[in-house]
Design a protein that fits this description.
Mean pLDDT of chain B: 94
CATH topology of the largest domain in chain B: Rossmann fold
Largest sheet of chain B: 7 strands, mixed
Radius of gyration of chain B: 27 Å
CATH class of the largest domain in chain B: Alpha Beta
Strand order of the largest sheet of chain A: 8-1-9
Number of helices of chain A: 19
Shape of chain B: globular
Helix content of chain B: 25-40%
Mean pLDDT of chain A: 92
Largest interface: A-B, 100 and 127 residues
Distance between the termini of chain B: 94 Å
CATH class of the largest domain in chain A: Mainly Alpha
Number of helices of chain B: 28
Low-confidence stretches of chain A: 1-5
Number of strands of chain B: 28
Distance between the termini of chain A: 51 Å
Radius of gyration of chain A: 29 Å
CATH superfamily of the largest domain in chain A: Formate dehydrogenase/DMSO reductase domain
Largest sheet of chain A: 3 strands, mixed
Strand content of chain B: 15-25%
Number of domains of chain A: 3
Shape of chain A: elongated
Oligomer: heterodimer
Chain lengths: ~525, ~750
C-alpha cells in the first residue's frame, strides 16, 4: 500500500506506476486454486463422444444438431484458443442460412469445420503426400512439416477447409483434435459448445457412399458427391428448401494466384513455340525451340515462386499416383529436359540428320501437349464449375494453339493459313468465354462466376475481349492480307496476344467462384 | 556380449526418408498438444500454465467466470471456469478473446493533452493530473460548482465506480453525474425501484432451468447472452418458450411460439393479456390482497385494452394472444425475461412494470422458475446502479433524503456538507445542460458517447459548447477520446482487481493478470492520483486498494436491501463462486443460487409491491409517406460489443462479425423500391442519412428495417426521445426511408431477385 500524503505528486505517480506493473498479487490468490483433478466440463462432454472406437467400416464424424446451434460461435474461439492458433486463424466457421417463407422465416446458424471426408479432395490433390487419413478413426490429418505450401488442397477442397498460413508458408487445418480424442478428451469445439450442439459420432462409410446421390448434406452447401463428407447435420425443423446462405449475394472475386496465372501462360506459350518449331522446317526451328525453352524455364521458376516453402519443391513428385499437380510438375520437368536436347539437336541438325531433329522436336510437342493436359486437369478436377474440363481445356490448349499458329505465321510457315488459324482460335476462345458469362447454366457457383464477370470483373472482361479482338482476330487478319508482313506489326500483335492471354488467365482465377459452406452476413 | 547397440540417432535412410517425407518437425510440434495441469485437458506446450486464477468476464452482465492461465505470474491464455455456478465451463467468443483485446496498438499508453495547435500530445502523469484539477476548478470557478459533470460506465469494477462517484461529488464538488447504464438499464432500475421499493432484480439463473413457461420480450439471449441460453437449454421440463419480438431472431427460432409483434406493441399486448387474465379470474387473489397495492385500479385500467384493440395495435392474431394467455395461466412456474427491446423505449418503465404486474397478478414471483426478470447489459451495470453515486447515492440511497446523507457522511467519515443534497441530472439532462451552457466541462470515463449517444450529430455539436473535456479510457482511438482536451490512459479488465455484480446480483472478483501497457493506470489509481492532486486525498485515505474499498461498500450496505456485510473479503467470493446480494453479517454459508421475495415482503414502506401503469402512448415518430419504414437497432452479432472499442481489437472477433454495415430489409419492401441484394442504399431519417449495404431477409418483417448498433454512423439516424421516468433513450423506433444509392441501374446479368421465393415478393 502506498502512502501518498508525505510525498510530492511525481513520487506518488512513480509509486502508482510501479504498483500497476507489480504482478505478485496474482500468485497469492492463484495458489488457492491448487491442482484440480478433472474439470466439470469433462463430465458434460462424456455423452458427446462415442462409447466405442470405430469398428471396421466406420469412422469418426462431427454431428451437428442444428436445432441446438444458436449462433454463439463459442466453438470457433475455443478451437482457436485451445489449439494455439495464430491471430486470425480459425479452423471452424459459423455460417448462416436464411429464407423460409414470409409467414415463417428461417434464421439458422451452421457451425462447420473439416468434414474428414471419405474421399478427401485435399489428400488426392496434395503433391507432397502431406495428408493422411487415419485408417481407424478416419481423421484427415495434415503433416505440417511435409507441406511446401502449394495451396492446391485449398482449391481442391469443396468446403474451404485447408487454410494457407502465409507467414509459415504452409497450410493448416482441423484434425478433430485427434490427440485429445485419443486421450478420451472431447475436441475443443465439442467441449466448448454451451448447447451441446456438436458431438463426435461413428459413421458408416458404406452407408455414406451409398447415399451420396441422395445425401442433401446441407442446404446451399456443395454436393456431397465430390468428397463424401462425414459431418452430419441433423434437424427436426421443416423448411430446408428455400434457404439461402447469408452471403448468397456477395460476389467477391477469388484469389488471383499471380504466379500460377503467369506460369500457365508462359508454359502454354512454350508448348506453342515447340509446336511451331516442330512444324517449321526452316532455320527458324532453332530460334523457336530456344524461345520455347526460355519460356518453359520462366514457367518453372514462376511456379516455384508460388510455393510457401520453395526449397522443398523436390517433394512435388511424391504425389504422382493421385495428384495432377505432381503429374504436371513431372511432365513439365521432363519436357524442359527433352526441350534442352531438342534445342541442341536443332543447332546440330546437320550432323545428326533431319530425322533425329524432327523426331526430338515432335517429341517435345507430344510431351508439351501432355503437360498442358496435366495443367488443365489440375483445375478441372476441383469442384469449381467455372473450371470444368471443356472450358479449361479450350482455354489452355487455345493459348497453345494461338501461339503455335501466330509463331508459325510470323516465321513464315503456313503463310496466310497460319494467321487465319490464329483468328479462328481466338474466335473460339471468345465464344466459349462469352458463353460462360452469358449462359452459365443452373449451377449456383457458375452463376456466381457470371455475376462476377458482370459485376466487379466487368472492366477486366471488357479489356480481355478488346485485346483479343484487336490482336487475336483483327490483327492477324490484316497480317494475312498484307503480305509480306512487317516485323514491327508482327511483334506488336504477338505482344498484344500475350497481354490478352494474361487477361484471360487472370479472369480464369478471379472469376472461378469457389463452392463453399454458408457464410454470415456481409455488409 | 549380448548388449544391443543402440541404433545411431539418424541413419542415412532415416535422413533421406525425412528429407522426402517429414512427419515431425518444428511446425508440427508447435501445435502438438500435451496434457496440462489444473484439469485443463490438453494444450500446446507453449501455452501450458504453471498456475490458474479465476476472474469474472468484463463484457456483459452474465458474469461468467474465466480461468486465467498463468505462466510466471502473467496471463498466457484462458478458458471458462468449469465449476462456477454461472457459466458451468462455457464462455461466449468475447470471453474467450478477453485477453486478446488488451494487446492493441490502439491502447492509450500515456496521458495526452491537446496543445495550442490542437494536437493531442503526450504529457507526464503529474502534468495531466494538475491540468485535470486546474481545468475542473477553472470551469467551476467561472460557471459554478455544478457546471462540471461526469459520465461514467457500467464497465468498471464496483470499487472504482464508487471511487469515481465519491471523488467527483464529495471530493471535487460536482453535482451532476451519470453513466452509460442510462442507455441500457435505467428503465429496469426505475421500474423495480418504483414497484418493489428498491432496484432489485429478483431472480437467479437457476430460474431458467426451473420454469415451465419462459417468455422473452425484446430479448435475444441466443446471441446477446449466449451463456444464459445455455441455462435455458438445460431446462429439462420441456418448457414452453415464447418470444415476443418484431424480428425472427435466433431466440425466436428456438421458441415454441414466436409473436412477431409490431415494434413497440408490447405494452398494449401486456395490458391486453392482463385484461383477459382478470376477466377469466386466472389470477392469484390471495397474493394480490396480502402483498400488493393498486391492483383494483389496474384491473379497471386494463378494461380499455380489449382483445380486438390489442389485435389491431400489435399486428398479432387473436389466436396467438389467446395461446400466450393460456400458457401463462397453465404454467406452474412462469418467468418473463426482458432486455433492450423493453428498456430502450419511450415507455419502457411502464412496459417493464406491465411485466411485473403480470407476474404479481399470477403469483409468479419469489418461487423457483418465476419472476419479472430483467437481463442486464453491461458486466457491472448492477454495481453502477447500487454504488455509482450518480442518480442514487452509495448503497441505493437518495441524495435528497437528509438521513441518507448523514449516514453516508458518517460511514465515510467525511463532512456532511460535501454531500450534495440535490439529485443528479440524468444523462440527457446533463447534455441538455451543455446545450444551454450550464454544463461547461465533462469528465467521461470508459464510455464512448460520440458513437453511442442517440442523435449523434446533436452530441457532436455539444462538444463545441464545452470548455474542458476529459476522457479516461483504455483506448486512445475511441470517437470520444479523439475529441477530448485531455486523455487519461486507463488499464483495462485483466490489468486490475475489483468486483462486478451480475444480472442475478452475484458479486464476482476480477483479477490483475497482465501488465498494463506503457503508463496506463487502473482507473482506481487514476482516482487516487486525481484526489491527491485536488488536495482531497485525505478524504480518501482509507480508499487505498480495491479490497479496502470493498470493505467500505460493505459498511455502506448494512441495513440496505443490498446488504453484503457478511462477505469475508475477495477470498470468500473466490471460494464460493461469487455471492449474490443480499448477504448480511447474520448469514450462514451462502447457498449457490438465491432469489428475492420468497417471503413475499417487498422493499416498499408497506412491504407491498405496487401496480404501476399509464395509457399506451403513440410512436413518437410515426411512419409516413416520406419515411415509410421503422428503423430498429440492436446487437449485430455475438462477437460485437457496443461501440466495438474492445471487440474490434481481436482478429477472431472481427472475423465473427458482419464484414460491413448491412441493413436488414424484407425482400418485399426492397422490391417495392427496386433494391436488389447487396445494393448500396441510402437510409434517411429526419436527422441524417447514411449509405449501407442492403441485406434482404424475411426475418425482419414487413414495414421495418434493422441496423446493428455497432457502426458509428447508425446513431446519426436515431431519434432522441426518452422514457419520462427512466430518461433512457428510445433507440429502436425512428422512421426512415430507404432508397437505392446507385445512380445508374445495374447492368445486364442474372436477376438476383429471381432467386427469392415468389410468394414473398407479392
Amino acid at each position: 500500500m502506498i502512502a501518498p500524503s508525505t510525498s510530492p505528486l511525481p513520487t506518488f505517480v512513480e509509486d502508482l506506476l510501479r504498483e500497476q506493473q507489480d504482478m505478485t498479487a496474482v500468485e497469492r490468490f492463484a495458489l488457492e486454486h491448487a491442482e484440480l483433478a478433472s474439470s466439470p466440463t469433462e463430465r458434460r462432454y462424456r455423452s458427446l463422444l462415442p462409447a466405442t472406437a470405430p469398428q471396421p467400416g466406420q469412422q469418426y464424424g462431427f454431428e451437428v444438431d442444428l436445432d441446438r446451434c444458436s449462433g454463439c460461435k463459442a466453438c470457433v474461439t475455443a478451437c482457436h484458443a485451445m489449439n494455439g492458433l495464430d491471430d486470425n486463424e480459425t479452423w471452424r466457421e459459423v455460417g448462416l442460412l436464411i429464407g423460409g417463407s414470409f409467414s415463417l422465416p428461417v434464421l439458422q446458424h451452421v457451425t462447420t469445420a473439416c468434414h474428414h471426408c471419405v474421399e478427401p479432395g485435399c489428400m488426392s490433390a496434395c503433391p507432397t503426400l502431406a495428408y493422411e487419413k487415419d485408417p481407424v478413426t478416419g481423421i484427415v490429418k495434415h503433416l505440417d512439416d511435409q507441406c511446401f505450401g502449394c495451396q492446391y488442397c485449398v482449391l481442391a477442397c469443396p468446403y474451404e477447409v485447408p487454410k494457407f498460413h502465409a507467414a509459415k508458408g504452409i497450410v493448416r487445418k482441423c484434425d478433430m483434435c485427434s490427440s485429445r480424442l485419443k486421450a478420451g478428451e472431447a475436441p475443443a469445439c465439442v467441449q466448448a459448445c454451451p448447447h451441446e450442439a456438436i458431438r463426435i459420432s461413428l459413421v458408416d462409410i458404406a452407408g455414406l457412399r451409398r447415399d451420396v446421390a441422395t445425401n442433401d448434406f446441407l442446404p446451399t452447401a456443395p454436393s456431397a458427391r465430390f468428397t463424401i463428407p462425414t459431418t452430419k447435420y441433423v434437424t427436426e425443423r421443416a423448411g430446408g428448401t428455400e434457404l439461402r446462405s447469408g452471403d448468397e449475394d456477395v460476389d467477391t472475386p477469388e484469389h488471383n494466384h499471380v504466379p500460377l496465372m503467369v506460369m500457365l501462360v508462359l508454359s502454354q506459350v512454350a508448348v506453342g513455340l515447340f509446336i511451331a518449331g516442330a512444324v517449321t522446317t526452316t532455320s527458324a526451328r532453332m530460334e523457336l525451340l530456344a524461345a520455347g525453352w526460355l519460356f518453359g524455364l520462366g514457367a518453372i521458376v514462376t511456379a516455384t515462386a508460388h510455393l510457401g516453402r520453395p526449397w522443398l519443391a523436390y517433394r512435388a513428385v511424391l504425389g504422382w499416383r493421385t495428384s495432377w499437380l505432381s503429374r504436371e510438375i513431372i511432365a513439365f520437368g521432363a519436357l524442359q529436359a527433352v526441350a534442352t536436347v531438342a534445342v541442341v539437336c536443332a543447332t546440330e541438325a546437320e550432323q545428326l540428320g533431319a530425322a533425329a531433329a524432327d523426331g526430338i522436336a515432335w517429341l517435345t510437342v507430344v510431351m508439351g501437349l501432355t503437360a498442358v493436359w496435366c495443367s488443365a486437369m489440375i483445375y478441372a478436377v476441383t469442384p469449381r464449375t467455372y473450371w470444368a474440363l471443356p472450358y479449361t481445356a479450350t482455354k489452355f490448349f487455345g493459348t497453345t494453339m494461338l501461339v503455335a499458329a501466330l509463331a508459325s505465321g510470323l516465321v513464315g510457315t503456313g503463310g496466310t493459313m497460319a494467321f487465319s488459324v490464329v483468328s479462328l482460335v481466338a474466335l473460339v476462345k471468345l465464344i466459349v468465354e462469352s458463353r460462360q458469362r452469358h449462359a452459365p447454366g443452373d449451377d449456383r457457383w457458375a452463376e456466381r462466376s457470371s455475376r462476377l464477370l458482370y459485376g466487379p470483373l466487368r472492366d477486366a472482361w471488357i479489356v480481355r475481349c478488346g485485346l483479343l479482338m484487336l490482336f487475336g482476330i483483327v490483327g492477324p487478319m490484316l497480317l494475312a492480307s498484307a503480305h509480306p508482313s512487317s516485323t514491327v506489326a508482327g511483334g506488336l500483335i504477338a505482344i498484344g496476344c500475350l497481354a490478352a492471354e494474361f487477361c484471360e488467365r487472370a479472369l480464369f482465377f478471379r472469376a472461378a467462384a469457389a463452392p463453399r459452406m454458408p457464410r454470415g452476413i456481409a455488409g | 556380449m549380448s548388449t544391443i547397440t543402440p541404433p545411431p540417432t539418424s541413419t542415412f535412410w532415416e535422413t533421406a526418408r525425412e528429407w522426402l517425407h517429414q512427419r515431425d518437425g518444428v511446425l508440427s510440434r508447435e501445435l502438438l498438444l500435451e496434457p496440462s495441469r489444473f484439469g485443463l485437458g490438453q494444450l500446446p506446450s507453449r501455452l501450458q500454465p504453471d498456475a490458474v486464477a479465476q476472474s469474472t468476464c468484463g463484457f456483459c452482465s452474465t458474469g461468467c467466470s474465466l480461468q486465467i492461465h498463468l505462466k510466471n505470474g502473467e496471463a498466457i491464455g484462458l478458458s471458462p471456469s468449469g465449476d462456477y455456478p454461472v457459466n458451468l465451463g462455457m464462455a461466449c467468443p468475447k470471453g474467450w478473446e478477453a485477453l486478446t483485446v488488451l494487446d492493441s496498438s490502439e491502447r492509450a499508453t500515456v496521458p495526452l493533452l491537446r496543445n495550442a495547435s490542437g494536437q493531442l500530445t503526450p504529457v507526464d502523469w503529474s502534468t495531466a493530473a494538475r491540468t485535470f484539477v486546474d481545468g475542473v476548478r477553472a470551469v467551476q470557478a467561472q460557471h459554478g460548482p455544478d457546471s462540471f459533470a461526469f459520465l461514467g460506465t457500467g464497465q468498471m469494477p464496483t470499487e472504482e465506480l464508487a471511487f469515481y462517484g465519491a471523488l467527483a461529488k464529495f471530493g471535487l464538488g460536482m453535482v451532476h453525474g451519470d453513466a452509460n447504464t442510462r442507455q441500457c438499464m435505467a428503465t429496469s432500475a426505475v421500474a423495480y425501484k418504483q414497484a418493489f421499493g428498491f432496484d432489485a432484480p429478483p431472480f437467479t439463473y437457476a430460474d431458467f432451468e426451473q420454469s415451465d413457461v419462459l417468455i422473452f420480450i425484446g430479448a435475444n439471449p441466443c446471441i446477446a447472452h449466449p451463456i444464459l441460453w445455455e441455462r435455458v437449454m438445460r431446462n429439462t421440463l420441456r418448457p414452453e418458450i415464447i418470444v415476443i419480438d418484431p424480428r425472427r431472431t435466433e431466440t425466436a427460432m428456438q421458441a415454441t411460439q414466436h409473436l412477431a409483434i409490431q415494434p413497440k406493441g408490447d405494452l398494449t399486448l401486456l395490458y391486453g393479456v392482463a385484461n383477459i387474465l382478470i376477466e377469466r379470474g386466472w389470477i392469484d387473489r390471495d397474493f394480490l390482497e396480502s402483498h400488493t397495492a393498486g391492483f383494483e385500479e389496474f384491473a379497471d385500467f386494463v378494461r380499455d385494452y380489449p382483445l380486438d384493440r390489442v389485435v389491431r395495435e400489435t399486428g398479432l392474431t387473436a389466436t396467438e394472444i389467446e395461446k400466450l394467455v393460456a400458457a401463462i395461466h397453465q404454467g406452474k412456474a412462469v418467468s418473463i425475461w426482458w432486455t433492450m427491446g423493453v428498456n430502450q423505449s419511450y415507455q419502457g418503465v411502464r412496459t417493464a412494470q406491465a411485466i411485473i404486474n403480470l407476474c404479481l397478478m399470477t403469483g409468479n414471483i419469489g418461487r423457483p422458475g418465476t419472476g419479472p426478470n430483467s437481463i442486464t447489459g453491461q458486466c457491472n451495470a448492477m454495481g453502477s446502479r447500487l454504488f455509482g453515486n450518480t442518480s442514487s447515492m452509495l448503497g441505493g440511497r437518495d441524495f435528497t433524503v437528509a438521513e441518507h446523507r448523514r449516514e453516508v457522511a458518517s460511514l465515510l467519515k467525511i463532512d456532511e456538507a460535501c454531500v450534495p443534497s440535490r439529485s443528479s441530472w440524468a444523462y440527457p439532462e446533463i447534455l441538455e445542460g451543455v446545450r444551454r451552457g450550464e454544463i461547461k466541462g465533462l469528465w467521461i470515463v470508459a464510455t464512448n458517447p460520440s458513437h453511442s449517444w442517440i442523435d449523434q450529430d446533436g452530441f457532436a455539436a455539444l462538444r463545441e459548447q464545452l470548455d474542458f473535456l476529459v476522457v479516461q479510457d483504455m483506448y486512445a482511438t475511441t470517437e470520444t477520446a479523439a475529441i477530448a482536451d485531455l486523455v487519461l490512459p486507463a488499464a483495462g479488465w485483466g490489468e486490475k482487481d475489483g468486483t462486478f455484480i451480475n444480472s442475478e446480483r452475484r458479486i464476482g472478483v476480477i483479477r490483475k493478470v497482465k501488465r498494463a501497457p506503457g503508463q496506463a493506470l487502473a482507473d482506481f489509481a487514476i482516482f487516487r492520483l486525481l484526489a491527491e492532486a485536488a488536495d482531497c486525498g485525505a478524504m480518501f485515505r482509507e480508499w487505498s486498494t480495491p479490497e479496502a474499498v470493498f470493505a467500505i461498500l460493505q459498511r455502506l450496505s448494512i441495513g440496505r436491501p443490498c446488504d453484503i456485510s457478511g462477505i469475508n473479503g475477495y477470498a470468500m467470493l473466490d471460494q464460493q463462486g461469487g455471492i449474490q446480494w443480499p448477504y448480511p453479517a447474520s448469514s450462514t454459508t451462502p447457498t449457490t443460487e438465491r432469489r428475492l421475495f420468497a417471503d413475499r415482503r417487498f422493499f416498499t414502506a408497506d412491504e407491498r409491491a405496487k401496480f404501476l401503469f399509464d395509457p399506451v402512448r403513440p410512436l413518437p415518430e410515426v411512419c409516413d409517406a416520406e419515411y415509410p419504414l421503422l428503423l430498429m437497432t440492436g446487437r449485430g452479432s455475438v462477437a460485437q460489443w457496443h461501440t466495438e472499442t474492445r471487440t474490434r481489437q481481436s482478429a477472431v472477433l472481427r472475423k465473427l462479425s458482419p464484414s460491413g454495415l448491412a441493413l436488414e430489409i424484407h425482400p418485399a419492401d426492397a422490391a417495392a423500391v427496386g433494391i436488389e441484394p447487396q445494393d448500396q442504399v441510402l437510409v434517411t431519417s429526419r436527422r441524417g442519412q447514411i449509405t449501407v449495404t442492403a441485406f434482404l431477409t424475411e426475418t425482419v418483417g414487413r414495414g421495418r428495417v434493422f441496423l446493428p448498433m455497432h457502426d458509428p454512423r447508425v446513431n446519426q439516424l436515431t431519434h432522441a426521445v426518452f422514457d419520462p421516468h427512466s430518461r433512457q433513450p428510445s433507440y429502436k423506433d425512428c422512421a426512415v426511408s430507404v432508397t437505392s444509392a446507385d445512380r445508374a441501374p445495374r447492368s445486364a446479368g442474372p436477376d438476383r431477385l429471381a432467386s427469392y421465393p415468389s410468394k414473398v415478393l407479392r
